[in-house]
From TrEMBL:
Entry keywords, A to Z: DNA-binding, Transcription, Transcription regulation
Upper lineage: Bacteria, Bacillati, Bacillota, Bacilli, Bacillales
Residues covered by the HTH rpiR-type domain: 4-80
Species of provenance: Geomicrobium halophilum
Annotated InterPro entries: Homeodomain-like_sf, HTH_RpiR, RpiR-like, RpiR-like_SIS, SIS_dom, SIS_dom_sf, WH-like_DNA-bd_sf
Protein origin, superkingdom: Bacteria
UniProt GO molecular function: carbohydrate derivative binding; DNA binding; DNA-binding transcription factor activity
The name this protein goes by in its record: DNA-binding MurR/RpiR family transcriptional regulator
GO terms, biological process: carbohydrate derivative metabolic process
Boundaries of every SIS domain copy: 124-264
Amino acid sequence: MTTNECLQAIRAHYSLLSEKERRIADFILGSPHKVIYFSISELASASEVAEATVFRFSKHVGYKGFQELKIALARQIVKPEANIHEVVQETDDTDTITKKIFNEHKRALDDSVALIKEETVDGVVKHMTQATRIDIYGSGGSGVVASDAYHKFMRLGIPTQAFTDDHQQLMSAALLKENSVAIGISNSGSNRDVVDAIQTARDKGAVTIAIANNRFSPLTKAAHYTLSTSARESLFRTEAMASRIVQLAVIDLLYVTAAMQMKSTTLENLEAIRQAIAAKRY
């Protein structure tokens, strides 16, 4: 199937769909621009069907799965320049582009603040400060955030590692025990590797934490705690910077809150680090 036939394919197959599959079709046909930002969990919830029904629907209209359907839908309805940035138009000058990009990032941060619950942060930090080990999992752009988390959390003096390789993530998770903490980072909350690692860590007795944009995703279902973010990111522009900025802010929130509770230890560690790296600077 060519990539510009998604909506046409849904209409063509409509009479052959089951009643539940027609709910999905109706939602996509009525709100295609919303669907390109949805995970399979969100579309299932919006259509009031099970995730398995969304998968079957995608197969029935000619795609291997929901992700392939969503890619085809995005290619059909999204302007080419949106692959660079959704809110930027081809006619925008540099000043307009600057304001749009920075305003988008500020909006993502403001929207995320409204979702962060004090009791969730307190619960996560309590487990972090009492942990014997903290392992962090992320892939792609979220892998960069996982590395930044390692860079920060090591200052707490708690053994910390970040894993971006899928096999190493599972190996790490399989070795976790009680009093360990595992943090999974995924904007969509649907990265299979990160979800598998977090579920394995939970099965081994670790406290699991999700940092995700989708509160009803496979990742959040596998985690004890969820720190929700709010940043628009679609399949056609998965390297969107706003999501990483928000994730980095959440990591900084956890680090600073934990550091304040472990003030003496953290200050000693920071001084030791400064002395160690002093010779690296001119």
